[in-house]
Design goal:
mainly alpha, about 40% helix
Length: about 80
């Protein structure tokens, strides 16, 4: 089992959304894509935003999302 769970990550990412607005993330697939994108940024040299004993980029990316250190921005052009 993953820690934190997909539903925990989705709740954290969507916590800034006002009532009545569309959530930023509405599927597990979206969380996976966002986390993978951040992991690729870390692999390509971006500095991690959290101190984490694990050196795996994907684990660091999940921890950053969980601690709200990164924001997911929706591309309005492709969101149809």
């Amino acid at each position: 089992m993953l820690h934190p769970s997909y539903s925990d990550l989705m709740a954290i990412v969507n916590s800034d959304v006002e009532p009545g607005e569309q959530p930023v993330i509405n599927s597990r697939y979206s969380i996976v894509l966002a986390t993978a994108k951040r992991a690729r940024q870390i692999i390509n040299g971006s500095e991690p935003l959290v101190d984490y004993e694990c050196s795996k980029p994907l684990s660091i990316a999940v921890k950053e999302l969980y601690e709200s250190k990164v924001r997911i921005e929706v591309d309005e052009e492709n969101n149809e």
